[in-house]
Amino acid sequence: MTGNAQVEGPWDWLTRSDLPMSCALIFARDLEEGEMFEAFGLDPTSARTEDRIFDPDRGRVRVGRLAPWTFAIDDHMVNLDLAVHGKNVGKRLSAGTEVAVIESTEKPTENFEYWADGVKVTSFEPYRAFDRYGSDPDRFLDEMRQVGMRTEADYEAEGPGNDLLAVLDMATLALGIRLPEEVATGPLATVTLPGDR
What we know:
alpha+beta
């Protein structure tokens, strides 16, 4: 190893993956996998163990657990469609616990939401981290600054090199959230969406 070799961060694998092209990662503390599926309006008994092979014509929600967090990988932004119809997955899952939702699209745009007991505590787009909303929008301000996010409306200030990785690093610092590549792309409980969803 050379002296100037960079150490890879816990989320850097995403830069080699097509996962963030249009995807949501949802983390809920201390919930069962079945509860995660149910928040999407899916039947957990229909889950089958599958590896991640992206299919643009086949919507799937994949669920796993890295204690204390249960996570969902939503390749087709089903949670966003549900929110449009008043069935917010983050809000529903957070009753009695806490939930983090990280969304990414190919535009690229990203969004972060943190819910606690049905209340949206903080929400922001990572590239505009100074524009925060919620009942306690500054909840993760220290961690945001630690990862180099622009927390003040200073357009001259340099932000992080990658906004998605920065917000995930923030979630790791603040909440202990992690998702290794081998888990995210390996076999997970998977429910394929009905054709009318």
